[in-house]
Amino acid sequence: MTDGRRLVDGYRLVVFDLDGVIYLIDRPIPGAVEAVGRLHAEGRAVAYATNNASRRSSEVADLLTGMGVAARPEEVLTSAAAAAELLGDRYPAEAPVLVVGAEALRAEVRAVGLTPVTRAEESPVAVVQGYGPQVGWSDLAEAAVAIRAGAAWIATNTDRTLPSGRGPLPGNGALVAALRTALNRDPDVVVGKPSPELFATAARHAGAGRTLVVGDRLDTDIEGAVRAGLDSLLVLTGVSGVAELLAAVPEQRPTYVSENLAGLFDPAAVVRVPGPAEAAGWSAALRDGRVELSGAGRPLDALPALCAAAWSVAEPVSVRAASPEAELAFAALDLLAD
């Protein structure tokens, strides 16, 4: 940031995505435990919003606490709970719902008074589909039969991938895509991000004051924040990288970018995007259909100028280094230059 203030001081509530921001699968991302602990020590409101439907809020809170992040179930908003709440509002008590996903999703369906089932012949009123590592062909087949018979189709989220220590792995969106192909139709409702409900709910719980959303994915976390009318911080510890950032459509553009959660507290570790075309020693301009970066400085400080140039045109553009320092910056930002 250019004014020397801490980013976090401008917000009452910080809402974190989990996978790719706080942890990768079951291991905390370096610095995340310390960052959340610092927020708690300062008395700041914290919430967690996750599209992962394989754990209940209490399980997520226990997982976080086990990693050293003190978390309460009421601070955790999951797409599984939101989907179950939607179904509970829509259907009478004990109505059968075919659940495709993990046991956590079944538990959320039971918690709202509905009856989880596994086969289409049990005449479910709806199919709810969430991520589960054991979901297989037979589960998708039962869902397809039930939906063709008239059951509503609710997806907890459509994340194409989920982050892991080995790189992105197939997410619920990949499984939804299989059903979409088989049925030649989209789900009736997608509950999780980028729909704004999870973030809007968190902001309502916090009351008055500004909310900052912190995420690692442009197509879910950041777009969800934009739809909810909230500021957002993209951290580069998960799925979306700088190349994807420069190609982002308007509804997926963050307010700020940081390499990690240090950007919440260190003004030098976060930048606002887009920024001036010439600043912090860098200059970016469109030349011959490419974004050309010249000058010298810290790699992160080049992002505001790069975003300003790349976002000034409708189509994604490639980048080119016009100085040796720019080549080093591209390497540090994992950008492939022409």
TrEMBL record:
<dbReference type="InterPro" id="IPR036412">
    <property type="entry name" value="HAD-like_sf"/>
</dbReference>
<dbReference type="GO" id="GO:0016787">
    <property type="term" value="F:hydrolase activity"/>
</dbReference>
<protein>
    <submittedName>
        <fullName>HAD-IIA family hydrolase</fullName>
    </submittedName>
</protein>
<dbReference type="Pfam" id="PF13344">
    <property type="entry name" value="Hydrolase_6"/>
</dbReference>
<dbReference type="Pfam" id="PF13242">
    <property type="entry name" value="Hydrolase_like"/>
</dbReference>
<dbReference type="Pfam" id="PF18407">
    <property type="entry name" value="GNAT_like"/>
</dbReference>
<keyword id="KW-0378">Hydrolase</keyword>
<feature type="domain" description="GCN5-related N-acetyltransferase-like">
    <location>
        <begin position="280"/>
        <end position="335"/>
    </location>
</feature>
<dbReference type="InterPro" id="IPR006357">
    <property type="entry name" value="HAD-SF_hydro_IIA"/>
</dbReference>
<dbReference type="InterPro" id="IPR006439">
    <property type="entry name" value="HAD-SF_hydro_IA"/>
</dbReference>
<dbReference type="InterPro" id="IPR023214">
    <property type="entry name" value="HAD_sf"/>
</dbReference>
<dbReference type="InterPro" id="IPR041065">
    <property type="entry name" value="GNAT-like"/>
</dbReference>
